[in-house]
Design goal:
With about 350 residues, this protein is of the alpha+beta class. It is about 50% helix and about 15% strand. The chain contains 13 helices and nine strands. A four-stranded antiparallel sheet has the order 5-4-7-6, with helices on both faces. A three-stranded antiparallel sheet has the order 2-1-9.
Amino acid sequence: MIRNRVVFMLTAAFFVAGGFMTAKVQAQVLDKPVAVVRLEETVNIGQRQLRQQVEFIEQQIQQRLTEEHRKEVLEAKIAEVLMLQAAERDGIEISRGELQHGIDQQRRSVNEQLSEDQFRQLIEREMEMEWEEYVEEVRQRLVQERYVMESRRELFENVESPSEREIRRVYEEHAGEFMNPAMVRFNHIFLDTRNVDAATRADKREKAEQLWGEIESGQRTFDQVMRAAEDDTTYSGGDFGYLLRGEYQNLSVLGQDFIDDMFDLEEGDERGVLESNAGYHIVQVRDRRRARLLDLEDPLFPGQNVTVRRQIENYLLMERRQDVFQRALQEVVEELRAEAEITLYEQNLDW
């Protein structure tokens, strides 16, 4: 059930996509109006637009919206129109770098491992949006957020940092969630067998056995063979990074047998030839870590600077800033509504 009107307005206005924000007035000529809004210029909000938005939200929350909830979606759209016009009037702009940062944040919030191309495909496939349309929606959201923050700067400047007691309380209540899984980091000499025929696969296996034989017999060291990949296009070599036990993406790409083989090894071990779903590997283990609970001062991940303490602090600070943002949003929208001309056609919310 949707209970908090301000939270619902935030969700609808800033975080829901689907082509609603960028619809053109010309396309609404034959559409029933649900609202006409004017601050600096007149914008007609049509029933078809609103219905598409409502249906998108219903799909996300797996719940049918009542007519009262539809009114809330409409109120969110009105707020969006008002803030965009006010921001343009006040010269609020978003730089190209800020826009890219906003897109990157969205991508990482979906999946840290997604490349830019994969994220773009996800947007176009799952949300059925053109990429340029999505980018414009992110830009508009950032413009609105900046307008709210600039209009109520004093509220955001006075947000207090979390206390030591608060940080420790969160850590102790959720200590079991701050855990590193078992992980292994390794260098590998790799021969890719994806999308090749049986004969080519056999040749690659023979090449892998040859390279491993040279290492095992002492003809060349692992590092020498790995560095030679720069001049030999038949294989590649380098640092794989950390392989995490239980990570679905690695399981899908590499396969359970390869992962089990890797976690049987210890730091300093060299082993070949191992087969994964992706190809043949000769490996050298650089680091092997067992699963363990993290203390407050531990980094969240080996090699990272962000500690458990910092993550908790950032989380609490984000919660406070979000509370402030909701308050600021409500104040700003109420001011703009008092200044604007708004005509509602609530009878057209019944479909």
